[in-house]
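Teaching assistant here, posting this on the class forum so everyone can see the example we discussed in section. The complex has two components, and the goal was to see what a joint structure prediction looks like when all of them are supplied at once.
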Amino acid sequence: MEELILNLKEQIIDALNLEEMTPDQIDNDAPLFGEGLGLDSIDALELIVILDKFYGIKLANPAEGKAVFKSINSIADYIKKNRTK
Amino acid sequence: MIRIVSTNITSPLGLTTEENYSAVRRGETSLKKIDGYRNVPGKFCVGMFSDARRKELRLDGFSWFESLVIRSIREAASHASVDLSSPKTILILGTSTAGIEELGVTPDKDGAYLAPGVAAAKIAESLGFVTTPLLASNACISGATAQMLACRLLSAGLYDNAVVCGADVLSEFVLAGFSSFMAMSPVECRPFDIERLGLNIGECAATMILSKTDEAGGWNIVDGSLDNDAYHVSAPVPSGDGVCRTVTNILTPELKETLACVTAHGTATMFNDQMESKAIENAGLGDLPTTAYKAHFGHTFGASGVVEPIITMCSLDEGKILPVHGFEELGVSGKIKICDALMDTDKRAFVKTQSGFGGCNGGVIYSKLPQGPMKSGEGRYEVAKTLSVSPTSLVVDGAEVPVESSGAALVTEIYKKYLSDGSRFFKMDLFSRLAYAGAGLLAKDSLDGTEPGRRALIIFTQNGSVLADRKHLSTFAGTEGYYPSPAVFINTLPNVVLGEIAVKNEIKGETTLVMLPGRDDETIETIVDVTVRATGPSAVIYGWIDCDAEDSFRADLKLIKTI
């Protein structure tokens, strides 16, 4: 799980261009949207691309993403349960 | 007044205005379900020409986009006595992508991709124009923007005729981008309906030939207004305030009495239709029938602001208001009356609303009643601040500011030193970064005391978003799989950065992006001059921003304010 979380953070930093941010600066439980990392709706779509590209998970309905994208931990849990690659 | 002397619609429904109107009147649609398109997987419903039809209509030596535009203009010009080769006739295109489908496919004769403004010059030359064309790239309101540019240039007496053509074509580039935005409906779209699932993409070129005249008879553009939500680059402000303002800015009680209907944008996305219903209600137009045509043509982007008013003109000419195809049950909370069955009317005027990425909105009023001249202000302006950025220098008010880095890093240095505002800066392409940092530094502490609604932003460019275009193309055209990035795609619309700047600096007046065949300071000053005369802003940020490689860019911006 730790490896998955580290990979995921690196993929997010890269895809969302979180300039000068390192994986250890992202709190596993902190909210990703609004406060915390301050991501927005376009970033949410980018997270959907990450799920597809690296883990083979197709999230067809963006509304589903709301619960999944709460925090790094919630995304990692979801990946663990649903990954196809 | 500004008269529409001739029109054309070239779409999958027909090659003339009459053919298209007849098809719409019969309830026909160009929308068809397809399973994937070239490299783009997925189930789509699109309004496109068949491959055979494309082949038949494509002109030798021209891209598909150029071919459609040329055909549309030729047909419109064939029934108007307007001399395209007169020095007093100008071509103004409105498009969001301008034939971007050629980016990775068909280079021009010199082996390079034609920037949209350069493609406009090629089109102009082939049609015999002798004046430099303009190309408004303001996402979905490009068509309205092109019409406003035309009206202002004609009103100022600089030209006698303007040929306005709004056009966009369907391509992998656009489909891939919108599929990453998850905004497309796999079935025919249903504007304002409770079961709407999103938009369909369509392709079309539509032309209006405009002339200044004092003679009665015929359709006129009464007035128009463009503004920015200053809310978000891709999501419209939920209150619909931006669209509402574009209407209330130009609608007088007398004009309102003459209106038959509202021709809405009605893209059938959840957000647009909801927002637009609030805007129409709050503009005081909830009691008029609202109609929309996206279920006939799909969303034709740059063409939509031209083709849709033309259809309403045809319907009002026969005393009818057409129902919204696909609509059954109201699915928006604004108190509006969606036209759900063919209606009779004796009125001959209407409002067209539209809004798009970059937070931009447009409202235009068309009428068959005689009109006075468009309003024109006498405001005087002075240059309050200037700024230039090159790969090696930053110059503010004529004085060199010491910098430590060069190239793209210099743009980041400016952002970090002077703005560092937690914005989407690092997610932008270089063109957007340059515009954001440059305009941001220019605006910093300089807009105080001006009303947000009277702040304007007009950017001129040649290459626009070409770096983002190439990057977007590489995400789905390569061999590593199909993963278009929404963050990259949004930057392929060069006006999106205007939205970023508007959000940051609370610019709620007009924001416009004009693409030119090359840098031309005289044209820039002329357009800014006619724009401020027509709209009377308190402060305008404008200038040239261009970028064709990571180490090749230039920004020369000015802030002018009323004296």
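For the discussion questions: Chain A has one domain: 2-17+30-82. Chain A has a mean pLDDT of 87. Think about how each of these relates to the inputs above.
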